[in-house]
């Protein structure tokens, strides 16, 4: 663990948030009454800070899995997204113990030895206050389109497998089910929704309907465009992705999903990964470079402040757990062990702890707070506000003066504090008069000096 990032206030907040998470870890999550967020059984808010450990069960040993979970728990992650039937030839290439998930690639013949590692991982995650965002399968086993497949599921087999895996984990309360696996649910003249619907039905039958189900789509899309009205879908996710350059308008995905009826939570389950090549398809241009921590922070904060129920961080080496035994996929610039303590992973944790400290703050996205000219793409600012109007936060991707209409905050006086997304530290608080338009200047200006302006009415 890199102690440079753990100042005393940050460490204290981490301890307190960990204690709160421990209190609720046995609870099953459910959707909040307003339909936009996730909660524990007692109504306490839950913030989804995910990490894409897609190949976790397929490529790591027991000791490596524990080390990885320790690292993510210490940084404040709450959800680990991992796949039972992995993307990288997961039906034919065995895990590190020589086990494949099925006999003869037949979903009706599961291999208990393979799934025992998943059993243990779910238990280890529980011990570390982590939820597992469990994908029963990567999407290429339903519709190949690209990847290695093979396609092994039709509706009947999907229902049977969903019921089997749902039964296996029906008593594990720290599971969020995620269908899809980087695939569209339908496209012109092709419709795979009956297969996913059947798998969801199997899971729901096996768990007695005590489950939370999301769907992970392909890049540049949201599950809502195909599945929003499916009764089995509890949470929409979208993938702003890696292929459309910097500053994809993730906030627009959130806004669109939040405007749908019935309301359902939404989040970016795969934004630009730290240390991922920028737009590597169909051929990577090295001059485009890599997404770094600053690129990651911009996307995480702006989707959350737009009203998402959380967000997922990812690292390009970690999702594939690339090491000396694996072929590198899409030009990672380091191995997974050297990627564990990259700055963006720490900084994602700072966002989570900020939202845990002010859990009501992003209840309502509200860019009307911003009285000065807002930008677009790399300069686009996003504001949010609590339902009672007493707390607001504004993310500035570039350090610049910003004018705020304080009439939207319900107090005669407003305390304004700058929060540094790079360090998790707060600057000195400034008290200003409410009911006016006031200009604020962050402590440092310019590109890569991003800030959160925290406003509290008193």
Poorly predicted spans: 1-11
Oligomer class = single chain
Query: Any idea what the radius of gyration is?
Result: 22 Å
Structure annotation, total helices: 12
Which overall shape is indicated by the principal axes computed on the Cα atoms?
A: globular
Q: Just give the CATH class of the largest domain.
A: Alpha Beta
Instruction: Count up the domains.
Output: 2
Protein name: Putative collagen-binding domain of a collagenase
Domain Putative collagen-binding: 365-456
Domain Apiosidase-like catalytic: 33-359
InterPro entries: Apiosidase-like_cat_dom, Collagen-bd_put, GH
What does this structure look like?
This protein has helices at 8-24, 56-59, 62-75, 112-127, 155-168, 193-207, 224-227, 250-258, 293-305, 316-320, 336-339, 343-357; strands at 30-31, 38-39, 45-46, 48-52, 79-83, 131-135, 175-179, 186-187, 190-191, 213-215, 221-222, 235-239, 266-268, 310-313, 364-365, 382-385, 391-399, 402-405, 413-419, 430-433, 437-440, 446-457. By secondary structure, the chain is an alpha/beta fold. It has 2 domains: 3-357, Glycosidases (TIM Barrel); 364-457, Golgi alpha-mannosidase II (Immunoglobulin-like, Sandwich). The strands form 5 sheets. Strands 4, 5, 6, 7, 10, 11, 12, 13 and 14 form a 9-stranded mixed sheet that branches. It has a 6-stranded antiparallel sheet with strand order 15-16-17-22-19-20, with helices on one face. A hairpin with a 5-residue loop joins strand 16 and strand 17. The longest helix has 17 residues, at 8-24. The two termini are 38 Å apart. The model is unreliable at 1-11 (pLDDT under 50). It comes from Chitinophaga terrae. This is Putative collagen-binding domain of a collagenase. Residues 365-456 form the Putative collagen-binding domain. Residues 33-359 form the Apiosidase-like catalytic domain.
């Amino acid at each position: 663990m890199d102690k440079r990032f753990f100042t005393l206030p940050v460490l204290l907040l981490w301890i307190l948030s960990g204690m709160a998470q421990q209190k609720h870890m046995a609870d099953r999550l459910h959707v909040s009454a307003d339909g936009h967020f996730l909660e524990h059984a007692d109504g306490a808010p839950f913030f989804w800070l995910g990490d894409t450990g897609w190949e976790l069960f397929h490529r790591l040993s027991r000791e490596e899995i524990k080390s990885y979970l320790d690292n993510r728990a210490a940084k404040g992650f709450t959800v680990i997204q991992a796949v039972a039937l992995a993307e990288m030839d997961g039906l034919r290439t065995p895990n590190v113990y020589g086990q494949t998930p099925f006999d003869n690639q037949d979903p009706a013949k599961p291999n208990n030895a393979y799934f025992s590692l998943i059993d243990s991982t779910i238990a280890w995650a529980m011990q570390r206050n982590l939820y597992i965002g469990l994908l029963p399968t990567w999407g290429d086993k339903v519709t190949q389109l690209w990847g290695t497949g093979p396609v092994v599921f039709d509706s009947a087999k999907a229902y049977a497998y969903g019921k089997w895996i749902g039964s296996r984990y029906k008593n594990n309360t720290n599971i969020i089910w995620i269908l899809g696996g980087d695939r569209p649910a339908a496209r012109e003249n092709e419709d795979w929704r009956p297969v996913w619907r059947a798998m969801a039905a199997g899971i729901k039958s096996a768990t007695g309907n005590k489950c939370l189900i999301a769907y992970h789509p392909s890049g540049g899309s949201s599950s809502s465009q195909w599945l929003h009205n499916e009764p089995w879908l509890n949470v929409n996710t979208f993938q702003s992705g890696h292929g459309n350059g910097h500053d994809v308008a993730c906030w627009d995905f959130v806004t669109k999903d939040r405007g749908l009826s019935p309301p359902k939570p939404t989040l970016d389950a795969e934004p630009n990964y730290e240390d991922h090549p920028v737009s590597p398809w169909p051929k990577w241009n090295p001059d485009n470079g890599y997404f770094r921590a600053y690129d990651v922070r911009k996307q995480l904060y702006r989707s959350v402040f737009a009203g998402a129920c959380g967000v997922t961080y990812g690292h390009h080496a970690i999702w594939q757990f690339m090491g000396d035994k694996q072929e590198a996929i899409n030009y990672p610039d380091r191995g997974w062990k050297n990627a564990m303590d990259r700055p963006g992973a720490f900084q994602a944790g700072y966002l989570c702890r900020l939202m845990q400290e002010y859990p009501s703050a992003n209840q309502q996205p509200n860019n009307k707070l911003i009285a000065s000219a807002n930008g677009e793409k790399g300069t686009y600012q996003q504001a949010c506000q609590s339902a009672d109007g007493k707390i607001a936060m504004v993310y500035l991707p570039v350090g610049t003066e910003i004018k705020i209409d304080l009439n939207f905050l319900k107090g005669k006086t407003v305390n304004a504090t700058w929060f540094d997304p790079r360090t998790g530290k707060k600057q000195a608080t400034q008290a200003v008069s409410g009911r006016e338009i006031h200009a604020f200047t962050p402590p440092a200006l310019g590109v890569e000096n991003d800030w959160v302006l925290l406003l509290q009415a008193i």
